[in-house]
Amino acid sequence: MPCASGGSGRERAVGLNAWGALPAVPAAAEIRLSSRTAALPAAAGNGTLLPYGNGRSYGDVCLNAGGTLLCTRGLDRFIAFDPDRGVLRCEAGVLLADILDLCVPRGWFLPVTPGTRFVTVGGAIANDVHGKNHHGAGSFGCHVRGFELLRSDGERRRCSPRENPGWFAATIGGLGLTGLVVEAELQLRRIAGPAMTVENTRFADLDEFFALNAAAEERHEYTVAWIDCLAARPRGWFMAGDHAGAEAAREVAAPGKARGLPLTPPVSLVNGLSLRAFNPAYFHRPLPARATVHYVPYFYPLDGLLHWNRMYGPRGFYQYQCVLPATARAALDEILQAIAASGQGSFLAVLKTFGPRASPGLLSFPMPGSTLALDFPNRGEATRALFTRLDAIVAAAGGRLYAAKDARMPGALFRRGYPALDEFIPYLDPKFASDFWRRIMEQE
Amino acid sequence: MQRILIVGATSAIAEATARRFAARGDALFLVGRNAARLDEIAADLRVRGAARVGCQVMDATDTAAHAAMLAAAEALLGGFDVALIAHGTLPDQRACEASVELTLREIDNNGLSVIALATQLANRLEAQGHGALAVIGSVAGERGRQSNYVYGAAKGMVALFLQGLRNRLAKKGVQVLTIKPGFVDTPMTAAFPKGALWAQPDDIARGILAALDGRRDVVYLPGFWRLIMLAIRLIPERLFKRLSL
Questions:
Q1: Do residue A200 and residue A186 come from a single domain?
Q2: Phi then psi for B180, rounded to 5 degrees?
Q3: How far does CA A333 lie from the centroid of its chain?
Q4: Which partner from A234, B39, B60, B211 sits 20 to 30 angstroms from A308, CA to CA?
Q5: Are residues A260 and A291 in the same domain?
Q6: Considering A175, A191, A207, which residue would you say is the last residue of a domain?
Q7: Residue A131 is part of a domain; what is its CATH number?
């Protein structure tokens, strides 16, 4: 839902929500920023501020009940682009989709992209997003050359690995709590054209997945697996991809206009019945072993259906995304068994391994190991009880959960999973806060 | 490549339209009141592919400055293919009712200053025998309503003026385009609650480029406003005056 426009005054709160569309208390004010040089507006309600980009984080890192949301989509100007070096400077509300539209025809691509291109640059930094190339490229923050951080006391800090490196590290993955990123400079990646070559392989269990994955990470830039979370032995499709040469561009067509789910159905369309019908069919569908496709359907299959989050009905949904250290294979098995036994979950289930490249971000999510992401329709107590079981496995294995996807993790799990938290806290802006942060810090 | 002059270039609709011109590789000359904002927009348009971008600070109601601005634009661009007049304000109707001075100022902002610019631009376009003059009017200019008739009167005056100009310039190969947006979600309308009838600035921008390419005369944006306004115009005055629109 877009934030109401307006650079001049206070806006009526329209009730901006996060992607999971779980019930939430609205902000007192939603103010659309439109100038990167303007001062921060005065805070309404409880006196706190929080940047809000395009609302694609799932839980409550982008929400600020009773406070002010600073809507950054009006900060959507490019500042400079060097087509020889692939260095782009832009305002923080620019969408990754806008960058792709500009840069792909000029032979450049995002260095790292999450599964939707409808996130802002500011949001990508604040959540230090990752993609299918993490095993080689690390997270988004590894490719941020610098940014300007506007603090609530009016101070503007240039941050980069060399200048204000502490602020740089705290703000990457800092969940928008260190101040407002108003503009950023990114290093893009060269490509020959918009086409991708992909290889699809079915796997029947986790051993097969890890074998495929180990080989694929040597040869392919992008790897990811879809898993059938209902199967007793986790099976799925392994998908490896690479940017294709210029000549392949002629084989692929740009996607048509995206269609949207026009309204929220009264109940979730994702349930045990639809899942038991969908997952085996998806697993057994004939996929070509090799194909050439346009980058949009390759990276962003769900962007073709706008508002797909509505299919979970008015109660919304959770995503559970954890990372487990590479040594914790047994824990991964245990988590998948627990989910399969629960009969919950969704066809949106993804397994991927993270590589060793460390992010500069203090609260960055990735660590070397395996990450598992699954959507769950909100079934209230049953869903939360399952999460509590999963939390115990994650904690025992030394893993952690991804704040960008979270709406419910206990504070203790967060504190345990992010050992740099104490180092991060001095960089908090005293006026910035979020529902997530209050939840994490107030729970004992 | 086309050469584009935009007056009121920092408005949301103008900026969205300029981005589409820039993406086609056009050259632009931007006129507005806020120098810093003009520079930010100019940098953005260069990245998006504009062949060149110039800026000038000018208050459109300063009619004495128009000739020099047009000369500067012509010097940078080497002539115009499209001139888009996009500046305007949304008056506080109640405040206008209490102030003659404010009413006349709003008529100037949204009406007289536009007519002054259009007069000079028309002569240049007529002399060169090609090009387009596009002006952002409003559906509010079609019928006086109690809630914003000062704005409506100014926009209605502009529409009538352009109609005459179109009649004159049609013989000279010059397009005169009256753009009538409905509700658009911009900083100008920030105080209004938004519903299903509201469009985004880029929706209007897309319509403006299509109307220019299609050599249209009058365009409602989005197009459904043509039907809404038809219905509103058809209500008899005897009945209309009792409504609270």
A1: no
A2: -120, 85
A3: 24
A4: A234
A5: yes
A6: A191
A7: 3.30.465.10
User: How is residue B81 written in tokens?
Assistant: 């293919």
Instruction: Tell me which residue has tokens 């068994």.
Output: A337
Examine residue A10 and state whether it is found in any structural domain, yes or no: no
CA-nearest of A76, A67, A9 to B190 is A9
Q: Tokens 């409808």 map to which residue?
A: A118
Report the first-to-last Cα separation within chain A, whole angstroms: 34
Residue A378 lies in a domain: yes
Q: How far apart are CA A236 and CA A283, in angstroms?
A: 6
- Determine the residue of chain A that is closest to B186 in CA distance: A5
Q: Which is catalytic among the residues B151, B161, B220, B225?
A: B151
Which chain A residue's Cα is nearest to B185? Answer: A5
ipTM, interface predicted TM-score of the complex: 0.91
CA distance B199 to chain A (A): 11
Pairwise CB contact (< 8 Å): A78 & B44: yes
Q: Which of B116, B102, B110, B113 is nearest to B136 (CA)?
A: B110
Note whether residue A440 is domain-resident. no
Would the CB atoms of A5 and B12 count as touching at under 8 Å?
yes
- Going along chain B from its start, the domains and CATH numbers come out as 3-240 (3.40.50.720)
Of B44, B185, B200, which has the smallest distance from its Cβ to A77's Cβ? B44
String of b and e for A77-104 (b: at least 16 CB within 10 Å)?
Answer: bbbebeeeebebbbbbbbbbbbbbebbb
Nearest Cβ partner of B187 from A2, A8, A102? A8
Residues 6+ apart with CB under 8 A from A286: none
| A126 and A229 co-located in one domain | no
Is some CB atom of chain A closer than 8 A to the CB atom of B231? no
Domain count of chain A?
A: 2
Q: Is residue A258 a part of any domain in this protein?
A: yes
Per-residue pLDDT of chain B (245 residues; tens, 9 = 90+): 999 999 999 999 999 999 999 999 999 999 999 999 999 999 999 999 999 999 999 999 999 999 999 999 999 999 999 999 999 999 999 999 999 999 999 999 999 999 999 999 999 999 999 999 999 999 999 999 999 999 999 999 999 999 999 999 999 999 999 999 999 988 888 778 787 889 999 999 999 999 999 999 999 999 999 999 999 999 999 999 998 88
Calpha distance B216→B214 (Å, rounded): 5
Alpha-helical (H) ranges within A41-188 are 96-103, 121-126, 134-137, 165-171
